[in-house]
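Checklist before submission:
- one chain only
- standard amino acids only
- sequence pasted in full

Submission:
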Amino acid sequence: MSPKTQGFKATNKHVKIIGRTHYYNDVLCLALSGGGVEFSFYGTKAEITIKGDSIASTGNNLARIGISVNGIRVIDDQVDQPLKTYTVFESDTEQDVIVRITKLSEAAMSTVAIQEIAVDAADGIKPTPPKSHTIEFIGDSITCGYGVDDEHELHSFSTQQKMLQKPMPT
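Returned file contents:
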């Protein structure tokens, strides 16, 4: 981290919690599809460190995450390491930035946790404001869109197959 970089835990003080999550052993765990966090900052850089569970090193049906910056998905990846850091935003000039981290795969296909959020921003990060209306979907392959992603008619389930098509903006 550079001298101006600040690190944050994904707690209610710093992020808006989306969906059902669980805080355990100092990290925010994401299991269900659609669960995640959202935050904003005014700065030049953001890095997210994701912690994989025991499935992360197996290479089989890894957890899939999406990270969006200002409404554009910049990361669509499978968590294949115990710890993985993503640089999701970097600029020479300070900008207003909104970052959303979402678990895209089902709970049965492993979990991930948000280990740390690091930003180069004088005022740190803050939760985005709550929406006036929300809908929560709880489910499995239907709610994470597996049927839509199987456009190649492979018909054998794998979280990797979901990455075959071009990621859509969130």
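Reviewer check: The radius of gyration is 16 Å.
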